[in-house]
Amino acid sequence: MKFSWKNLLLWSLPVIIISFFIWQGFFATTINENNNNITNSRMTYGRFLEYLDMGWVKKVDIYDNGHTAIVEAIGPELGNRIQKIRVELPTSAPELINKLKRNNIDLDAHPTKNTIAFWNLIGNLLFPLLLITGLIFLFKRSNSTTGGPGQAMSFGKSKALFQMEAKTGIIFDDVAGIDEAKEEFEEIVTFLKKPEYFTAVGAKIPKGVLLIGPPGTGKTLLAKAIAGEANVPFFSISGSEFVEMFVGVGASRVRDLFKKAKENAPCIVFIDEIDAVGRQRGTGVGGGNDEREQTLNQLLTEMDGFEGNTGIIVIAATNRADILDAALLRPGRFDRQVNVDIPDFKGRLAILNVHAKNKKINPQISLSIIARRTPGFSGADLANLLNEAAILTARKHKSSISLNEIDEAIDRIVAGMEGTPLIDSKSKRLIAYHEIGHAIIGTLLEDHENVQKVTLIPRGQARGLTWFTPSEDQSLISRSQIKAKIMGALGGRAAEEIVFGDAEVTTGASNDLQQVTSMARQMVTRFGMSSIGPLSLENEDSNPFLGRSMANTNEYSDEIAIKIDKQIYNIVQECHKKTLKIIKNNRVIIDKLVDILIEKETIDGQEFRNIISQYTTIPIKK
């Protein structure tokens, strides 16, 4: 933390005040004790009168306006030595003074000093002075750093990070795997640098660009690259920073942001996670959020109101485009909507080349191998993959990243941390049959994905795992492919039934059965792949403001619902029977594969296919 007089005062002011009051109480008590000559010896008032009658009292000093007396006495009980004893005097004892005079006792009265009152006065004056001085200093420091009326009075001001020349350290060459989106923004940067090329043919600069895509695909990274390439003022803010507890603060911040942007036009305004402020208005149970809706209204007005926002390009990013307000998505506000999707093979290879620049990877490893083994990985997943591999390499004290670290990093990201290996027992053999059941069905079915690895090493919540390599194109899936996936998911349970019998079937297939039911239901209700006909009976899109389950209302009769259940049952039963038949026909090879898996604990996909090809005449996928 950097040194700051403001931080020093914030930490030291409470300490000074507390220390002062502790010192004041201690000092005042000390003065009071010294003035009263307090002794350790005490005596009751009745005993004092007895000493007085016996003539043992020699001197009496009265303090505290007659409430306390210090008595000097001598007698046999006191060791025949003069001792000072403290006596608490009653409030009404007028005869005491006369009695002391009759016995010729040396009497002296000591008036109370006003020292305590003096220190109380100083303390009461010093505390407000310290408090006022500290507040004045803090306000002055706030004014000097913000140029405004201080933080306490500036909650309506925009919190956007403003840079005249944004030096993010990232340019378009550092962005890979999203070439289409990059081309869109390269055009915008060209528009900002050389607008005459476009204005000559009547083209207008787009007012807004919305980046839509899953998390980790590079939306924010692309915005940083725009900031590094554009050489124009760049405002960066998160959508959540507009919304506060007080109604009207968000709208005030939007006005302040666009006011600053207009003063520095042409410029770029980047709003990350715009769904925090741009949700549909008037939604949700019980109405919407007034503060958020006012903020959105102000944003809509600033982007394309009466005044307009000439020279300001608004770039926003979200992974929840389904909840954005329709007025925000129309042309004139966000003229372009750019989809930033999960990269394909070429995109993954380009991303790996970017993130591998500062990694020591074994020269024998081809990045294309890693790219082919990671379908479905986003840019953030690939960056995390190489980082995890580098961490594992450093942990093993190796000089470069090898394929083993890459494999282990992929397994860790997909399935979790490695657990304790299973001991050789009935449970381990049952898990081996379960995983081999999945793998052999996936290998023998032509429409199923290829087996990548079978392992008995626990990861996360799974006791064993079978990995399949997903195909690149997952947008269109045929009926035969879905049924192959259902049969592959049922392979583990089918192997348990054939080998161990119904009585020994375990709960290990619970997650598999959930997937089976879900796929079969989608075949019937969404894809029209049943005897009910080509009907879409359930909509994938639901109202996110009511909750996914609350919004899923059935749009069909009870009779159709019964037919849906029957069709789902028939599909699963048909796939289950075919799966059991395959397991029975290949029992010999399954037993062989189980023995190998128990011995080695992990079988690679290619090795698995080579073993099967030795025992069957069915063409094996490569």
What would you call the structural class? alpha/beta
Structural shape: extended
CATH architecture descriptor text of the largest domain = Up-down Bundle
Would you identify the regions where 5 or more consecutive residues have pLDDT less than 50?
Answer: 144-153
The first-to-last residue Cα distance is: 58 Å
**Structural domains: how many:** 5
Describe this structure in words.
With 622 residues, the protein is an alpha/beta fold. The protein has five domains: 5-30 and 116-153; 37-113, Signal recognition particle alu RNA binding heterodimer, srp9/1; 161-339, Rossmann fold, CATH 3.40.50; 345-415, Orthogonal Bundle (Helicase, Ruva Protein, domain 3); 426-613, Methane Monooxygenase Hydroxylase, Chain G, domain 1 (Up-down Bundle). It contains 21 helices and 14 strands. It has a six-stranded mixed β-sheet. A five-stranded mixed β-sheet has the order 1-4-3-2-5. The protein has a three-stranded antiparallel β-sheet with strand order 13-12-14. Helix 8 (249-263) links the parallel strand 8 (234-238) and strand 9 (267-272). The radius of gyration is 41 Å and the shape is extended. The two termini are 58 Å apart.
What keywords describe this structure?
Rossmann fold; 622 residues; Signal recognition particle alu RNA binding heterodimer, srp9/1; alpha/beta; 21 helices; 11% strand; 5 domains; extended; six-stranded mixed β-sheet
